[in-house]
Amino acid sequence: MSRILITGTSSGFGRAIASHFLDRGWEVLATMRTPSAEGLPASDNLRLLPLDVTDASSIADAVAEAGPLDALVNNAGVGMLNVLEGAEIDRARELFETNVLGAMAMTRAVMPGMRARRSGVIVNISSSVTLRPLPALSIYSASKAALNAFTESFSLEAAEFGVRARLVLPGSAPETSFGRNAVARMGMDVPEAYGDFVQACFERLQSATEKTQAHDVAQVVWRAVTDDSAPMKLPAGADAETWFREAGRSAA
Ligand SMILES: NC(=O)c1ccc[n+]([C@@H]2O[C@H](COP(=O)([O-])OP(=O)(O)OC[C@H]3O[C@@H](n4cnc5c(N)ncnc54)[C@H](OP(=O)(O)O)[C@@H]3O)[C@@H](O)[C@H]2O)c1
């Protein structure tokens, strides 16, 4: 039976990815900071493990406990909705610890096993914000752009040993707790001078008709893991697909 470890499965995309792989007969190591089976299907193939991707000993314990892996999905992530002047640099550092260094540390931890077996797939959950610049998302977008660059470069090293690395770029998914979690963890103290500007930006974002659903992301992660010929970057969700096509046209 194939075995996958997914980070950040307490909610949103991570939970949907875990369910998708369980439904298709995979053994799923669903990891989260505070383990709970809430929202996940009951299954003998489901194992919950505690994991904080910013904590080196937590990573070492989870990877040792997990055993040999066919796939890793670095899904854990934090958002930040604010203009640069409203963002505290300590919070930005914390965000990079999770979104960038957390994914790097997890990748580094599973790589010896995958390299020795000469097989495995690592899928990093990036964002469609790397396809089009948006205001009030500069720090978050920078973290996902760093994740993209890391993954594209690392994939060349990993390919030497039969290991694939891929990026999934979801669009905006208001149905997940992402925005709420971002505000709870990172605050949203928008400086007064930017108030009207930020309000107008959020209204534009909220009025978008195309959206991403958690199951769109799960399906695209499934493709990234199971299809050897999947391209490096895969958009997930109707809005991400539109932006991906438009970014391709403007690059041509
Ligand atoms: N929703 C969107 O609009 C959107 C769009 C594009 C990309 N994304 C990306 O998709 C991924 C999942 O987002 P989501 O929408 O599903 O948001 P979410 O519901 O807030 O889920 C984020 C998950 O990451 C976990 N997490 C945060 N910090 C962690 C840490 N230090 N160690 C381990 N787990 C940690 C959270 O767990 P706790 O319960 O422990 O906090 C939670 O399970 C993120 O990487 C996000 O950047 C989201």
TrEMBL record:
The keyword Oxidoreductase applies. GO terms for molecular function: oxidoreductase activity. It comes from the Bacteria. InterPro entries: NAD(P)-bd_dom_sf, Sc_DH/Rdtase_CS, SDR_fam, SDR_oxidoreductase. The keyword Oxidoreductase applies. Gene3D superfamilies: NAD(P)-binding Rossmann-like Domain (3.40.50.720). Keywords: Oxidoreductase. Coiled coil: none annotated. PROSITE patterns: ADH_SHORT. Belongs to the short-chain dehydrogenases/reductases (SDR) family. This is Short-chain dehydrogenase. It comes from Roseivivax sediminis.
